[in-house]
Amino acid sequence: MVLTAQPSPIPLPRVRTLPRHVAVIMDGNGRWAESRSLSRQEGHRAGAENLRTVIERFGEHGVEILTLFAFSTENWGRPRAEVEAIMRLATRFIDRDLEALHDAGIRLQHLGDIDGVPSGLAKRIRKAVERTRDNTRMTVNLAFNYGGRADIVAAVRALIAEGATAEEITEESISAHLTTGALPDPDLLIRTGGERRISNFLVWQAAYCEYHFTATAWPDFGVPEVDAALVEFSRRRRRFGLVPEDNGAAE
Question: Is residue 2 part of a domain?
Fold first, then answer.
C-alpha cells in the first residue's frame, strides 16, 4: 500500500496477534503547536499531514479497519477560527488524497451526523464514500461530527421507529443500528496526546477493546509509534470477561 511519495524504510516488526479493527483518538495537535510557539491551527495542519503516514503503516501491517476520530459533536464549542481551520483541512485532505486512497484500495466511510457538517465538506464526504465504496483492501472510517452517546440514542430511536418491542431492544439490535453496525467492534483503541479518556468516542463499541495511551502528540505519532502500539497489543491476553483455565487452575 503506497500513499506517500517515500514509504517508510523501517521494516515491519513481528506482530503475533494483529487487531482487525483499530480506533484512534487523534489528540494533542493544539499542545504540540503551543510547545513550538505556533498557532493551534498550525497544529491541526501538522496533524492532517500525518494522516497518510499512519494510514499507510496500519495498512502495511494488514489492519483491516481503521477508525479515526477527527471531530466530535463537542468540538463545535471551540473558537470559531479553530473550527473553520479544521473544516478547511478536512476539505483539503479529501481533495488532495482521495484518488491516492482509492488507488490504494481503501474504502472511506463516514461516522457521525453528516447533516451538521458544512455543505461543501458534506458533499465531498459523500463523494469520497461513493468513490471508494467497492474497495476491499482496507476500510478507513472518518468519525467527523461524531458523538458516542448520540450514536446510541439514534440507534434506540431507530428501533422504536421500526416498532421494536421492549424485548426486541437488545445489545445485538442496538449494535446493529449504530453507525458502525456493519463493522466489528474495535479491538484496539489508541489515544495520543497524553490524556487517558475516550471522550465520547465509540462508547458502546469499545466496551471490550484494549486501550493504548501515549504521551506522543498526534503530529508526532508516526511509524515507530504505530509499530509499538501493535506490538503491545499482541502481548495482551484478551478475556472478554471470562476466566481462562491454566492446568485446571483459574486465574
Answer: no
Per-residue pLDDT of 215-234, as tens digits, reads: 999 999 999 999 999 999 99
* Annotated catalytic residue 27: yes
Residue 232: other Cβ atoms inside 10 A: 15
Number of domains in the chain: 1
Cell readout for 221 is 505519532
75 catalytic residue (yes or no): yes
Cα separation, 74 vs 203, whole angstroms: 15
Which CATH number do you get for residue 102?
3.40.1180.10
- Contacts of residue 48, defined as CB under 8 A and 6 or more positions apart, other chains included, come to 89, 90, 92, 93
Q: Which of 29, 50, 75, 247 is catalytic?
A: 75
Per residue in 2-58, pLDDT (tens digit) is 676 566 778 898 888 999 999 999 999 999 999 999 999 999 999 999 999 999 999
